[in-house]
């Protein structure tokens, strides 16, 4: 990326937040030169089984604990404060309204990007913000126009110099390979349910919170 500064928005269930999430956010923040990354737990994720989620307030608190004292990182409760399903486009609209013309960057994983065509008003995301798609090994070769959802595809062109996809709005879609940390929230929950250690998979404060709150134990209705 050539542009610097601005606000990054990194959403997810964060069920729980782990070192893979944090490292991905840090690498995007550094490469994009962002002033701040906001980590936004989804209150009611429309594509997830709510029965497998810890309470939204618990997930927000784990994010707060994970990034406490970390420069350039901020936990956002905006989706918890908004009623109904947590749609990324609504969050981006709200942040855009707040920050005006400052640069806005939406960060999502490659797997989520492949399902973007199922999201609410997904074509508008590109008109509201830059988009960075992150992925870990095994890396795909990169992004292609064919991978951009059909309703948004015609608004893009490929720039071989920057290896990015400028949008008609002036925003840019880019692809970023991040450090391979084979950590998955589902595996962490399984470790907790089996009474196995999650040390060095999540920040120590998050591990302590999970234990204190009894999260992700087998048969716990709050999972």
3D architecture notes:
The protein has 223 residues and is α/β, with parallel strands linked by helices. It has a single domain, classed as HUPs (Rossmann fold, 3-Layer(aba) Sandwich). 35% of the residues lie in helices and 16% in strands. The protein contains 9 helices and 7 strands. The protein has a 7-stranded mixed sheet, with helices on both faces. β2, α2 and β3 form a beta-alpha-beta unit. α2 runs antiparallel to α9 and α4 packs parallel to α6. It is globular. It starts with 6 loop residues before the first strand and ends in a 10-residue tail after the last helix.
Task: Please write out the topology.
Layout: E1 7-12, H1 19-32, E2 36-41, H2 56-67, E3 73-75, H3 78-81, H4 88-99, E4 104-109, H5 110-114, H6 122-128, E5 130-135, H7 150-153, E6 165-166, E7 172-177, H8 185-193, H9 204-213
Parallel strand pairs: 1-2, 1-4, 2-3, 4-5, 5-7
Antiparallel strand pairs: 6-7
Helix pairs in contact: 2-9, 4-6
